[in-house]
Amino acid sequence: MPVTYLKKALRTAESDQPDVRASVERLLAEIEAGGDDAARRLARELDKWEGEIVVSPETIRAAAALVPDKLKGDIRFAHGNIRRFAEAQRATIMDCNIEILPGLTAGQRQIPVSAAGCYVPGGRYSHIASAIMTITTAKVAGVPHIVACSPPRPGQGIPPAILFAMHLCGADVILNLGGVQGVAAMANGLFGLPKADILVGPGNQYVAEAKRILYGQVGIDMFAGRPTAWSLPMRRRTPSSSPGIWSVRPNTGTILPSGW
């Protein structure tokens, strides 16, 4: 029996991936060659951003003043929970050494990386949770330098709630940069920053492809996959229950390369 589609995407991750890869490779090459100036130019062209790239303390304070107290409380609550779990998790990872043979000692030491780059989506959706989960865990791990970046909105910059969360969680430097230029700035140590040893955080297909290409030059957390959904049918139902349990894992871009 033939399959009849009620609705079918004209574009898929596979169909667009060659174009995405070529575009990202070109942008990464431009930024590597042009440095800060190339990143600023791409911010103007792609994000329509003409303002500061390195967010100033004054801008952070002004943004915090715009965030409602209720939202600030919610962000602090989430940050506290994630920090406490990360601290408990870190406490389970111990240094150790043992004398295998007389005069032969083996062991392990847990040493944090020197610099981490945290990407926080802020285009179609503002991912406050991404700021909390990436920056907080790096801080608890003892990373001495944490850079965070997020796409600026024209005439505004990074949304105030994201900026508040980034600062609260411990970002040492925040960049008004999104997309490939944000990832490349952290990986290449632009704007006077140390080069990131690892890049973390979700993003659209361009961000995911930039991390894929840069993997090896820097470490990454994972390759983001495409959005998925699944359902579990329930054997027994009560009048008040639903016929099944649904779970949806969204991602930030309309098309993402499948990594897992």
How would you characterize this protein structure?
The relative contact order is 0.16. The chain has helices spanning 13-47, 57-66, 69-91, 128-141, 160-169, 179-188, 205-214; strands at residues 96-101, 104-108, 115-119, 145-149, 173-175, 198-200, 219-220, 228-233, 244-249. The chain has a domain at 24-82 and 112-220: Nitrogenase molybdenum iron protein domain (Rossmann fold, 3-Layer(aba) Sandwich). Helix content is 43%, strand content 16%. It is built from seven helices and nine strands. α1 (13-47) packs across α7 (205-214), α3 (69-91) runs parallel beside α4 and α4 (128-141) runs parallel beside α5 (160-169). The model is unreliable at 239-249 and 254-260 (pLDDT under 50). By secondary structure, the chain is α/β, with parallel strands linked by helices. The strands form three sheets. A five-stranded parallel beta sheet has the order 5-4-3-6-7, with helices on both faces. It has a two-stranded antiparallel ribbon with strand order 1-2. A two-stranded antiparallel ribbon has the order 8-9.
Tags for this model:
260 residues, alpha/beta, Rossmann fold, two-stranded antiparallel ribbon, 7 helices
Note the gap between the termini. Answer: 31 Å
Q: Please report the first level of CATH classification, the CATH class of the domain at 24-82 and 112-220.
A: Alpha Beta
Largest sheet: 5 strands, parallel
One letter per element, helices H and strands E, the order comes to: HHHEEEHEHEHEHEEE
Indicate the radius of gyration in whole angstroms.
Answer: 21 Å
Name of the CATH superfamily of the domain at 24-82 and 112-220: Nitrogenase molybdenum iron protein domain
Number of beta-strand segments:
9
- Name the beta content range: 15-25%
Question: Overall mean pLDDT score?
Answer: 86
* Backbone shape: globular
Spatial strand sequence of the major β-sheet: 5-4-3-6-7
Helix content: 40-55%
Number of helices: 7
CATH architecture of the domain at 24-82 and 112-220: 3-Layer(aba) Sandwich
CATH level 3 topology of the domain at 24-82 and 112-220: Rossmann fold
Poorly predicted segments: 239-249, 254-260
Structural class: alpha/beta
